[in-house]
Amino acid sequence: MRLDVAEARLRFASVPVARLATAGPDGRPHVVPFTFAVGPDPGHGDHIYSAVDSKPKSTTDLRRLRNIAANPQVAVLADEYQDDWDGLWWVRADGHATILDDPAAMAPALALLAGRYQQYRAHPPGGPVISIQVARWTGWAAGPG
């Protein structure tokens, strides 16, 4: 069954990890799992925020950041898999991403992330922050769960 926007947003925000899809200037897709928080941006609708944190990475020149700089259109996918397929669902948020690197601009997003993830309270991310203005929520569920 198709999910309405309110139910799609609620389910999306309930999972701890989603997948961020970007594409670079060459059109090649790039998908990575990421932690996130959903929050309103007054006057601008729903936003999804994620921060570059201190988890080990092979480089700080992250492909997702380069892709967003070249092509800000992104998609984010959250889902639930269960062996009982009546519990299956997925939600996709399509939107426009920007990179925040000013400490004042990052502060509200970092506060949302710290409120959601205990690890960020102990070790606040240094950023930058990916800010996605959601243009469209879509989703599907096998049942009403």
Largest sheet: 7 strands, antiparallel
Rg estimate, integer Å: 15 Å
Total strands: the figure is 7
Which ranges are low-confidence, i.e. pLDDT below 50, for 5 or more consecutive residues? Answer: none
Indicate the percent of residues in helices.
Answer: 25-40%
Order of helices and strands: HEEEEHEEHHE
User: Which superfamily, in CATH terms, is the homologous superfamily?
Assistant: Electron Transport, Fmn-binding Protein, Chain A
CATH architecture: Roll
Class by SSE composition: alpha+beta
Overall 3D shape = globular
Tell me the fraction of residues in β-strands, as a range. 35-45%
Just give the CATH class.
Mainly Beta
Which fold name corresponds to the CATH topology? Pnp Oxidase, Chain A
Number of domains: 1
Determine the N-to-C terminus distance: 11 Å
Spatial order of strands in the largest sheet: 2-1-5-6-7-4-3
Mean pLDDT score, rounded? 91
Tell me about this structure.
- This protein is of the alpha+beta class.
- It has a single domain (5-141), classed as Electron Transport, Fmn-binding Protein, Chain A (Pnp Oxidase, Chain A), CATH 2.30.110.10.
- The chain has helices at 5-14, 63-70, 103-116, 118-122; strands spanning 18-23, 29-34, 37-40, 46-51, 73-80, 89-100, 129-141.
